[in-house]
């Protein structure tokens, strides 16, 4: 399939190390994918689903110990520890390579090695990048075929170039004690072993498109961000784009596929999805910031996805989709998860494959169960999805899951203040990563687990991008859909109604919307967000726009401790922003 010596040599080395019985190059054809699917049905790695109701769809159950990203087993392996920074686990490459080599030695005996050349980003895009992943998992191979532009097309794009990311994956024994997700940004390499799950194993995603790419972006002067991209088309037919960074399981996919409230639909507004997880952004010839979606599919959270919360996501998953760790409805051989509908199957297998019925205490689907679905299935996929240039971004939105403290929305005073707003983000942890759920932790730019180098240098890079963008820079905002009332219920209706907030944001970006200046930035008054057709009062809105200085002062103490970890890597601009905010809070 290729004469590229750098690829051929590397694959030979991987074969010599892993010692598979067979090697199969993935060409990207339907025929080959179908053969692999049939083979996986034979071994039970995949389970076929009802082909009338869910054509082309399959179910996969991961190992019960392998259901989420493992941040404590994820490493940045660069020569100097300080380049990994205080928020990453560092593993000296001098030790990492020999340690890992021992684990990979012979790990594919009796198995086939699949060689997957893939492109991140639209074909022909100046922003696109190429990788080659070798893996011994058919599930990973078929998932990569959905999530990336994979096969011969990638080798054609690559030609004889040496500029590609080496991705070595093996599920090995799936032993959690020997699990390593290692990134070598200085070598363009990722070595992942003993996991077969999503972000640990589909290496185009977080490993490449964020950890390695963030390092490349810093070096090359662009941005690799954990952001969804949404287009809002006005009744005149003009579409404007926003990019939003929320931590895992905090609403990116939902916002990316939102259905406008009726009041906007009636006027002729439309919403288009460009991406739901990863945005690569560079400055275009006109000086504005342009974003592409690095991926070709969605790896979305299943629980809570339903015909009301996200009908577009649901429609996206009705064909050619891989479901992971959801429940199997034995009556009609379809899938189910908590929050899909109010009719749980009477006769089912849970995500572990054990008999399940609604009277049981345990969940049918794992809280981090997922769908892997082609973007082309999405009813609202943007016609710019494959545009090599990407889309111009008018607003960047940060957000997290905060029961208190963070208001529904506020705007940063300028880019520098916006970088500060991103750097102090915090969010309650979710099931997307192993460990405790619901603990507030600082998660700057939603990149805490994904920044491939020192986060202090990353903030500096953001500041520099702002200088280059000048007055063409997108405006920066922060949102929180997750404020709770005293009974623990979400106050804001969220989902499609988040468009009401996006409309204020776009209004601010073009200078038409009103705001008041507060200690933390610009906020709308309750009159500035359109509540027409919504059973939600201005008093309730005022409540979630409220900023409690005491809570904020407390929060800033935690920011101060967090910042202290960066020593002289903390940009002085951010330190000054913190001091200024503390003064304004009194
Ligand atoms: N209350 C409320 N919940 C929301 C909202 N948007 C999303 N959620 C819930 O948050 C969870 C995660 O949402 P997703 O959109 O899948 O999050 P994500 O950021 O794409 O997650 P990753 O794919 O892990 O990066 C789901 O259970 C959603 O139902 C919202 O506006 N309000
Ligand atoms: O990477 C994964 O496994 C799933 C995901 O999108 C996230 O956790 O952000
Ligand atoms: Mn998502």
- Per CATH, what is the topology of the largest domain? Phosphoenolpyruvate Carboxykinase, domain 3
Oligomer status? single chain
Helix segment count? 17
Mean pLDDT: 97
User: Which regions are unreliable across 5 or more consecutive residues at pLDDT < 50?
Assistant: none
Proportion of residues in extended strands:
15-25%
Can you list the ligands bound to this structure? Answer: guanosine-5'-triphosphate, oxaloacetate ion, manganese (II) ion
CATH C-level label of the largest domain: Alpha Beta
Binding site for substrate: 69, 197-199, 248, 368-370
Pathway: Carbohydrate biosynthesis; gluconeogenesis
Binding site for GTP: 249-254, 370, 401, 495-498
Subcellular location: Cytoplasm
Explain what the structure shows:
This protein is an alpha+beta fold and 586 residues long. The chain is built from 17 helices and 31 strands. Helix 2 packs antiparallel against helix 5 and helix 16 (549-564) packs antiparallel against helix 17 (572-585). It starts with a helix and ends with a helix. The model has no long low-confidence stretch (mean pLDDT 97). The structure holds guanosine-5'-triphosphate, oxaloacetate ion and manganese (II) ion. Oxaloacetate ion binds next to helix 7 and helix 8.
